[in-house]
Specification:
The complex is a heterotrimer of chains A (175), B (253) and C (484).
Chain A: H1 2-23, E1 49-51, E2 57-59, E3 86-89, E4 93-95, E5 98-100, E6 102-107, E7 110-116, H2 124-131, E8 134-136, E9 151-153, H3 159-163, H4 166-172
Antiparallel strand pairs in A: 1-2, 3-6, 4-5, 6-7
Chain B: E1 3-8, E2 11-16, H1 20-37, H2 45-51, H3 61-76, H4 93-110, E3 122-126, E4 129-133, E5 141-146, E6 154-160, E7 165-170, E8 186-193, H5 196-208, H6 211-217, E9 224-229, E10 234-236, H7 238-245
Helix pairs in contact in B: 1-4, 4-5
Chain C: H1 27-64, H2 74-101, H3 105-110, H4 113-146, H5 150-158, H6 163-180, H7 182-185, H8 190-213, H9 223-254, E1 257-265, E2 268-274, E3 288-293, E4 303-306, E5 315-321, H10 324-328, E6 339-345, E7 357-363, H11 367-376, E8 384-390, H12 399-409, E9 412-417, H13 430-435, H14 439-442, E10 449-455, H15 457-470, E11 477-481
Classes of the chains: A alpha+beta (175), B alpha+beta (253), C alpha/beta (484).
């Protein structure tokens, strides 16, 4: 009788596992993937970044990411030659808080949007991931509203550099 | 608001919210640090240590304490920040400026007359490293972050409501002066923290390090960072993302 | 003195037993029917076993269907995934262990409570290893992935919500398993061991929050989460139902109380019980219950004791030997004491028969279930043979009753009295060993019999060993092991 149980158990378990294997194997996210030509790969790529639902950047802590999608990220301002448009999902990376993946929308070779397709739960843990710095979308530069700031912070200016800096303008205006 | 500026440590310091006498005290603080730690002044203690005419063991306690602090930060940043130049010379400039700002801040706090202590408000900007106390009138102190590519353009505004210090490290002004241990990943990093030493050291560490360093540094949520990569990507912690995304006040007519 | 060579003939006693009439069904037909029932039972047991295996495979499958689980990244990823799988299988087996200990009537009917507990025990250490591996591999995996050391990672994990509870759960499991190791358990008083063992419920419950909040296998909104919670509900529900609710219902319904405590031999008492509708308890001869006597000194001891007679409508009897601190006080229970009952349990009944003939072997206190079984079986003359073993006259309690039952059913009864043979390991007396008595000589149709053995553990093991060597099939050997 024991032998029957073991044999039956092994067979049933194998069946369950095979079915599970077949059902699984999905990447962490169902994103529509546009046609990708070489150069524009997800900006998430090998760094395995994602963002939480609030739309802020977050990255995985897994530096050994398996995502083979490691093409150089396209940058908005670097003027890659392709005129690719579409939506791309970067490879998912497993982190201790779950899989993280980023989807980017590209129009004419420029990244126009970055959204998170990330599946961790909402609560304290995903805070940890999202506290980390991650690439965000580069916006258009903002003009300084000089009436509203009292200082600027950038690379340290030399004494000479100060004279032509924003700071000196602000200081002179007595703001 | 009265603004006073003076030159020190190779840069310019701007002080707001301090009486003239207090500004002199602040000046003296910076001068003292400059004298001890500048590598450009051959008479400074650090220059003499670098030249070999003074042993570190014989240097003033304060110098050794600063050196110890720098080593501590080296450990905390996993080596991204280090007081050691590739040629072996000890360069404490990365931490000295921040220590000077901190000491100057203490002087500013001490200068508040008794009875006014609850209302102290001042801002100190030393070459782009900012430390504040209180508010600018009814609003929090606001610091603009300079675009690394265009020095007269601001890409974001930090409201110092909760945190007190902003420090930026980058190569835009003075060229490659940051000692890196890997291929450059970031060309500018702004750190918003509760104290100026942390902000300054971590800003240097990010520029000297790579993406993993940045992740590790920002992992515990005690600082906010806005970093510009050499590849054009912009990295931000959630708290800093709001700075760039949030609509700026529309340009004044 | 009763001789082994001659069957006994003593006048029937006034004991609570019913006379049994020979059944109308021929022997062979009955045997065929029983074999079929036995095969059905065996099939059910197999099914349950396969279900247990499948549940473990299902636990792994929960991970397999988690999106992203098929892409493993680096050493850290492998360690993490191994840790996740170890935790899933380990927890699933914990739930299986709970079901085994829940005293589910179905399991008792087809498998037997004692076998279920034996399987439960055998799972203890492997499950603990799996859970420890779960914690260790995950810590190592996370620390490898994030570049921090294991210590830093443990500290980070501790600050994750619900994780301190998970560590607590692991600690409780360690305590439970360690105290259940035979070497440790022997040194602990039973009640102390039992209280610590109850901590396993706490361990199971306290581990649940982190399973539902950390990691992505049981994420919100997935069917995996629903399935897992359902498993928990099932296991804990069975425990609540069959270990708590049902005994309360039984106790309240039947209002059992002590009527008399009758010493029948040095150190042996029969406790006569009264109650309502005790025949509706469904107690078969040979079964036992877990009894609790509600006096100030005895209420926290629960005693597994066999019915020594088939319960009548309002009377029942159990017979127990004073063993150790707990049962010693049983002799001093006063009439009128309320009694609560968990049970009846046990597969040591004629329900478990699969063969035409019946061979009963009992020694000392082992007579209790055998006597009850004899009473509860419809026997044809010559169908059953009984062998009673005792070391001296003080060990012959209930023998008269058994002899009377045997006579009234036309069954053969032999008695073997004397100390155990010193030459070689034997269950027999020296004399009988030298005379060449064997099981087959006592029970000529042993190979076509169901052999029921009850007595001191070491002694009954020897009987069973001889039976196996003689070629009795395993499913025809029934051994009632009294826990010491």
């Amino acid at each position: 009788m024991r032998a029957r149980v073991i044999a039956g158990g092994v067979v049933t378990s194998a069946a369950v596992l095979v079915i599970g294997w077949q059902l699984g194997g999905q990447p962490a996210v169902t994103a529509q993937s546009g046609a990708a030509t070489g150069s524009t790969s997800g900006s998430s790529s090998s760094s395995g970044t994602g963002s939480s639902s609030s739309g802020t950047g977050s990255s995985s802590s897994d530096s050994g990411s398996s995502s083979s999608d490691s093409g150089s990220s396209s940058s908005a301002g670097s003027g890659t030659s392709s005129s690719v448009s579409g939506t791309f999902a970067g490879a998912a990376t497993q982190t201790q808080f779950g899989p993280v993946q980023v989807q980017i929308v590209v129009a004419d070779g420029k990244i126009t949007d970055v959204t998170a397709l990330q599946l961790t739960d909402r609560d304290g843990r995903s805070e940890q991931i999202s506290q980390q710095a991650a690439p965000i979308l580069r916006q258009e530069a903002l003009q300084a509203q000089s009436a509203k700031i009292q200082a600027v912070s950038g690379a340290t200016y030399t004494s000479e550099g100060y004279t032509t800096s924003l700071q000196s303008a602000i200081d002179k205006a007595g703001l | 608001m009265s603004v006073t500026t003076f030159e020190t440590m190779g840069t310019v310091v701007s002080v707001r919210g301090a009486a003239t006498a207090t500004v002199s005290a602040v000046r003296a603080v910076f001068a003292g640090y400059d004298r001890r730690y500048s590598l450009y002044d051959p008479a400074s203690v650090l220059s003499r240590i670098a030249a070999g005419s003074l042993r570190l063991a014989d240097s003033p306690d304060e110098v050794r304490a600063v050196y110890a602090l720098a080593l501590e930060w080296r450990d905390r940043t996993g080596g991204a920040f280090t007081p050691h130049r590739p040629d072996g010379v000890i360069d404490l400039s990365g931490v000295v400026k921040a220590l000077a700002i901190r000491a100057a801040g203490a002087a500013l706090d001490a200068a508040v007359a008794p009875g006014d202590s609850g209302d102290a408000s001042w801002m100190l900007n030393a070459g782009g490293d900012v430390l504040v106390r209180g508010r600018h009138g009814a609003d929090p102190w606001s610091v603009g972050i300079v675009d690394p590519d265009q020095r007269d353009v601001v890409v974001g505004v930090v409201q110092l409501d909760d945190r007190r210090a902003v420090a930026t490290s980058g190569t835009a002004e003075r060229g490659e002066h940051v000692w890196r241990r890997s291929a450059p990943t970031f060309r500018q990093a702004t750190v918003i923290a509760d104290d100026i030493v942390t902000a300054d050291v971590l800003a240097t560490a990010v520029v000297a390090g790579d993406e993993d360093d940045l992740r590790r540094i920002t992992g515990d949520g005690t600082v906010d960072v806005l970093a510009f990569g050499v590849d054009g990507r912009v990295w931000a912690t959630p708290g800093a993302t709001g700075l760039v995304r949030a609509g700026s006040p529309s340009p004044a007519a | 003195m009763i001789d082994t060579a001659r069957p006994t003939s003593t006048p029937p006693t006034t004991g609570p037993f019913r006379g049994t009439a020979a059944p109308a069904e021929p022997l062979e037909v009955a045997a065929v029917r029983r074999r079929r029932a036995g095969r059905r039972r065996a099939a059910t047991v197999d099914l349950l076993g396969i279900l247990a295996w499948a549940s473990a495979a299902m636990a792994v499958t929960l991970w397999l269907v988690t999106p992203g689980s098929h892409s493993v990244s680096g050493v850290g990823g492998w360690l993490t995934d191994a840790g996740i799988v170890a935790g899933l299988i380990g927890t699933d087996l914990v739930l299986v262990m709970l079901v085994l200990a829940a005293r589910v009537p179905l399991i008792d009917r087809v498998f037997g409570q004692d076998n279920a507990i034996a399987v439960h025990r055998s799972l203890g250490k492997p499950v603990l290893y799996l859970l420890l591996a779960h914690g260790l591999l995950l810590t190592l995996g996370y620390s490898a992935s994030s570049g921090s050391g294991p210590i830093a990672e443990t500290i980070a994990l501790f600050s994750t919500p619900d994780m301190p509870l998970a560590y607590l759960s692991l600690g409780l499991f360690v305590a439970v398993v360690v105290t259940s190791l035979v070497a440790v358990r022997r040194r602990l008083p039973y009640e102390a061991w039992h209280v610590i063992h109850l901590l396993s419920y706490a361990a199971v419950l306290v581990a649940l929050p982190h399973m539902l909040s950390v990691g992505s296998v049981l994420a919100h909104g997935t069917w995996q989460r629903v399935y897992w919670i359902a498993l928990y509900v099932l296991a804990l529900g069975l425990i609540a139902l069959y270990r708590i609710v049902l005994p309360i219902v039984v106790t309240l319904r039947h209002r059992i109380r002590v009527v008399a405590v009758e010493p029948i031999a040095p150190g042996v008492v029969s406790i006569h019980l009264a109650g309502r509708d005790l025949d509706a308890l469904g107690a078969r001869g040979g079964q036992y219950g877990v009894w609790r006597f509600w006096t100030a000194k005895t209420w926290w001891h629960a005693h597994p004791v066999s019915f020594s007679a088939v319960p009548g409508r309002d009377r029942a009897r159990i017979t127990v030997r004073d063993l150790g601190a707990g049962s010693a006080r049983l002799g001093r229970i006063t009439p009128g004491t309320t009694v609560s009952l968990e049970g009846p349990y046990g597969l040591f009944t004629s329900q478990a028969r699969t063969a035409p003939f019946l061979a009963l072997v009992a020694s000392g206190i082992g007579i209790t279930p055998v006597r009850a079984l004899l009473e509860d079986t419809d026997l044809r003359p010559g169908e059953a043979t009984v062998l009673l073993r005792g070391s001296d006259t003080s060990q012959q309690y209930l023998w008269q009753e058994t002899a009377a039952l045997a006579e009234s059913t036309g069954s053969r009864l032999y008695a073997m009295v004397g100390n155990r043979a010193r030459s070689g390991e034997s269950w027999m007396t020296e004399d009988d060993l030298r005379r060449g008595v064997t099981l087959r000589s006592v029970f000529p149709r042993l190979l076509e019999s169901d052999l029921y053995v009850c007595g001191p553990r070491a002694w009954s093991d020897l009987v069973v060993r001889e039976a196996r060597l003689a070629g009795v099939p395993e499913h025809q050997i029934h051994q009632e092991r009294f826990e010491s």
